[in-house]
Design brief:
Blueprint (H helix, E strand, L loop, with lengths): L2 H14 L8 H4 L3 E6 L1 H4 L17 H9 L2 E4 L7 H8 L9 E5 L7 H9 L7 H14 L1 H15 L4 E5 L18 H24 L3 E3 L32 H16 L19 H9 L6 H9 L4 H10 L5 H20 L1
Helix pairs in contact: 1-10, 4-10, 5-8, 6-7, 7-9, 8-9, 11-14, 13-14
């Protein structure tokens, strides 16, 4: 059952016995809303950047603020870690702040570096090593960092309803892009890491008296490569990749609003559509050529991984062809070579 559904059921039960939603009385009437956090709160993935922090008008904080008549102070910033929230985002919090939302923690554990490493061909990257390093930070350093951020929010905005959201699973076990080389095992580990990160965020936010909003159930069936994805695949500009798109931000808004303001988002009668620019075949081939898979150093790594260097050379040579069918065949060949390495 999704967080949205659980919250609505709980709200209905409370109202049936004459109760009210558990939002502090002093904050219930306040329209002050401060949105903190990282790129998942800044709306990265919606292709509507407004400044260096992104802060999209299609990001979930804007969607909630418009639907609920809140005065939004948009502090969330793409790339932010817990230290950035402490240094740059908390200045406007106060006793009059009624609502606070946030996603944070992904960048502390190296979200971008891990995704980048795991997207490379298996013979060129150490995806498992990157994941292991990420989990080490998650288990040893991140708990204290989250406690510090949550403590500051509680001290500065004592009357606010605070909703801390988690992160969705990005993958469904299938890599449908010719530009990325995720194995099934790698995608499983990445999703498992997301679940562990979410559990930590849930535990530490609850310890601070905040509401944790779990979104993995809401995003079920909408991962990268699903028929109706709420998360962008590798796309251009590159920073839009592997972030919630406009439909995904609507999903976040629907999940967060009940905990933040005590009522659900209005049902949209218009389907959210979004063109996610994907590089054309020539651009995809050029991007793979930029990896220099046929260089001496990279061919040496391919051989050490059990591949025949000649196979790599022939696949890469196809990418230089002017015939689109040959280029596509080269990209497919490289996917097959990656599978040989990662399936062993």
């Amino acid at each position: 059952m999704s967080t949205t559904t659980r919250t609505l059921l709980a709200a209905g039960a409370a109202l049936a016995v004459g109760g009210t939603l558990a939002i502090a009385p002093s904050s219930a009437s306040s329209t002050s809303y401060v949105a903190l956090g990282d790129s998942f709160s800044a709306g990265t993935g919606t292709y509507l950047r407004t400044d260096s922090c992104y802060r999209s008008p299609r990001g979930y904080p804007e969607l909630i603020a418009r639907a609920k008549g809140l005065d939004l102070d948009y502090q969330a910033c793409s790339g932010a870690q817990t230290a950035d929230v402490l240094a740059d985002q908390l200045g406007t919090l106060g006793a009059g702040t009624g609502h606070v939302s946030m996603t944070i923690g992904g960048n502390d554990v190296g979200f971008a570096d891990v995704i980048t490493a795991c997207a490379l061909p298996g013979w060129l990257s150490d995806c498992d090593g990157e994941i292991d390093d990420s989990l080490a930070v998650l288990r040893t350093e991140l708990p204290g960092r989250l406690d510090e951020v949550y403590g500051e929010i509680a001290d500065r905005a004592p009357n606010a309803a605070v909703a801390i959201a988690g992160y969705p699973y990005l993958f469904n076990g299938r890599d449908c892009s010719l530009l990325t080389f995720f194995s099934r095992a790698e995608m499983t580990r990445l999703n498992d890491g997301t679940a562990e990160l979410d559990q930590l965020i849930a535990d530490r936010s609850a310890a601070s008296g905040f509401t944790f909003v779990e979104v993995r159930d809401d995003f079920a069936g909408h991962a990268v490569c699903d028929r109706q994805p709420w998360v962008n695949n590798l796309s251009l500009p590159i920073d839009e990749s592997f972030h919630p798109n406009r439909a995904g931000n609507q999903g976040y808004a629907a999940a967060i609003a009940p905990s933040l303001v005590g009522s659900p988002m209005p049902v949209s009668r218009t389907a959210t559509t979004q063109a996610s620019p994907v590089p054309d075949l020539r651009a995809q081939a050029d991007a793979v050529l930029d990896l220099r898979l046929d260089s001496k150093a990279n061919l040496r790594q391919a051989k050490e991984a059990g591949l025949r260097p000649g196979e790599v050379r022939r696949a890469v040579a196809k990418l230089r062809s002017s015939d689109e069918q040959v280029v596509r065949a080269g990209l497919v060949d490289l996917q097959a070579l990656d599978a040989k390495v990662t399936d062993d």
